[in-house]
Amino acid sequence: MNGLIAATYAPMHEDTSLNLDIIPKYGKFLKKNGVKGAFINGSTGDFTSLTVEERKDIAKAWGQNKPEDFFVINHVGDTSLEVAKDLARHSADHNMDGIAVLAPYYFRLSDIHKLIAYCKEIAACAPDLPFYYYHIPVLTGANFSMAEFLELATPQIPNLAGIKFTNNNLIDYKYAKDFNNGSANILFGFDEIFLASLPFGADGWVGSTYNHLAPLYLAVLEAFNKGDHELAATLQAKSMKFVDVLNAKGGFNGAAKSFMKVLGIDCGPSRFPHTTLSEAQLKEAKAELEALDIMSHTAKV
Fold this sequence. Notes:
Blueprint: E1 3-7, H1 23-32, E2 37-40, H2 52-65, E3 71-75, H3 81-92, E4 98-102, H4 112-123, E5 131-135, H5 137-140, H6 146-153, E6 160-165, H7 170-178, E7 185-188, H8 194-197, E8 204-207, H9 210-225, H10 229-247, H11 252-259, H12 279-291
Parallel strand pairs: 1-2, 1-8, 2-3, 3-4, 4-5, 5-6, 6-7
């Protein structure tokens, strides 16, 4: 699995119940704009604000409605190992192309061997699906070497496919990418430094802003491959500004979800504690982004 992979939102009605009917349109929108797959029920998808049944319903809807030649990775991590195992089994029965799991984030792990044991149990519940470890230490506190993780986990987890690497430690990323001659699929997950991953051979990326700015990132990649590093850096800076503008509206997660409405995919409101932008705030954000020449690079319906 490679290319741009959008970390998708949990679409909701105004009363914050799930709006699963929009998922077919959502998937087509992503594919049309150059996105290769979806990473569902992750941090962007507010999995911590969803019930187990809601997470299952989202996975089932994506499994039934994903576009042709479009893959879906379902995040099944949870503070409860039993819940994570249940979600893994459910994924195997509902047309998922892979599963991912982050480390427990309340009683945090201080030992990499415990992390591997946790991953091993969950991966075994869906042995025919590629398994990805979701490395996001800023939220989980599990800040281990990913090269060491691969070395220890690969012999123990037969379906270990790779890592969703959401960290700005490019040294650790490079070592993980080079593990066993590049045998693991290391999906880079830090949108604001997308460009920095390219000299290290990155070919797969997971991020929330690929919902909004896939054409911009594809332009960054094209400029880099043509050797126009100045243009690539200029375009990358626009993605940083996009995050800055929306983050200033009360927090990026909620604001960015709200902004999908401007692009023609209304994902609805956010659940607590994230902010849902008003129409006036959306209009203001759009005007700011137009002034920065960012709207011309956004995804289109």
